[in-house]
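Notes from the pairing session

We agreed to fold both candidates in a single pass and log them together. This is the raw record for the first candidate, unedited. Please don't reformat it; downstream parsing expects exactly this layout.

Candidate A
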Amino acid sequence: MTEEIKKYLKFAKDISKKAGQIMLKNFNKENDYSYKEDKTIVTSIDKKINRLVITRVKQKFPTHAIDGEEEKFGKSTYTWVVDPIDGTAMYQRKIPVSVFSIALVKDGKPIVGVVYDPFTKNLYSAAVNNGAYQNDKRIFVNNYTLENKESLVNIDMWPAAKYNLYPIEEEIGKKSYTVTIGSIIRAGIGVAKGDFTLALFPGTKDKNCDIAALKIIVEEAGGIVTDLYGNEQRYDQPIKGAIICNKNVYNKALTIVKERIKEND
């Protein structure tokens, strides 16, 4: 690992733990909140953490940009892509599954990714060509097929999602046990550490913030992350959803998705 990558990774880990402290401090409080155009919720704590990242990046890496789900700043080859609280609906309801996520993206491709779960104190991280870790322990995807009785699949949906994954859930549900835990990033981390076999995500605008860190963590753990049509995509701009899985189920999952969602949708 180069000294430059070490510096970026340390920064991402440090800011993740600070964000986690803010999440825990305010978890049992009655935080102000509102709803976005896509009917997803945002709280004052999302905005506070997003602002913290912008402030710290400006101080430490003044030539870098920040693409936060709640606030953005600047344009650069290097962009810090941030989801301040993934699983805000759960967070607001005091259900402890939410996480903080940050990735450093160079020319659209993540080179460092960190996800922090403040409720369990688990920090998940990866740097390009250096493996994926839960704290200091290497993690790997499982090798289950969809038909394996141990296989667990997470499928996200919300009212204004562009892609309708319900027919896909119906089909995959014939093969695997399917759930929605309320945080695609936490579910994606489950793929990286072998708890989940597959996670599907229908997000587009601003939802690169949900997948950027997962892209590098899951793939450094031996998995695959593409858009819903099997294409690579940039993570400093809107995305076309995501397939997040191990290599054994990827082709079958992709076929099921593409049969039910046309690529020009």
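Candidate B (folded immediately after A)
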Amino acid sequence: MRRCSPEDLVTFGVRFLTSKAVDPSNARVVAEIVVQTQAMGIHTHGLALFPYFHQNIPERVDPNGQPRLVRESGIGAVIDGNFGFAQLAMRLAKEVAAAKAAKQGAALVTVRRCGWLGALGPYLHSLTQQGYLAQLWAQTTNCKDAAPHGGIDATFSTNPVALAIPTRGDPILADFSTTTISMGKLKRMAQKGEQAPEPIFLDAQGSLSRDPRVALEGGSVLLVGGAHYGYKGYALSLWAEAIAALAGGECNNPDTRISQSVGLLVIDPRAFAGQDHFYGQ
């Protein structure tokens, strides 16, 4: 198997994106987070973004769309992604959130109308290196992946969340969908003809299944907690929708232009019990 260095992959990404009329400096920002995600082993959300960009620029992702800070308060801010790259919007969101958290102890920065983030966890790594705890929620406007708990019709996207905890060594990063698995993993399972170890899908008639293909044929993927305890994942999914509303984005709406809304919470332990106590515990 041929191996490519991260820098070679970034160089490829920059060349590819600039061929799509993306500014070279912006192309590097996007390519670096894509390659970092791949290097972290999240293959469904790493280099997979390049074919996504190929298919969706410029119809869904504006190669010249620049994120813009549109509202700001003491600990809060709203960024409009202008249907551009989520990676650029997240760079601005992290800068604003870190600056506010350093002064106020915590910050919540929301983003609306941006492209696909891919995996969430890699965005938070740099914040943990600065000593911050971080939480990131994402929602997609018009995906039909998951039915409400107790329902049949797919209504919500997989509405993922990531959590990041700094330590004196490597940070703790958690990144997961509010559904039992992500759509990227679901599609990969379907392509390989694999079955889930337990029934985590509903077919179009509402029957439980281990076959991921039923979710792509009018069915849905179950929320975290599964058939009996999926109300827990449903609550988390609704929280992601609420964050989208805070951002001024569209909650689940199949008639709107597809985009993502994001909520980034950053907390400085120095403003609470102190960093030494936090790390010690």
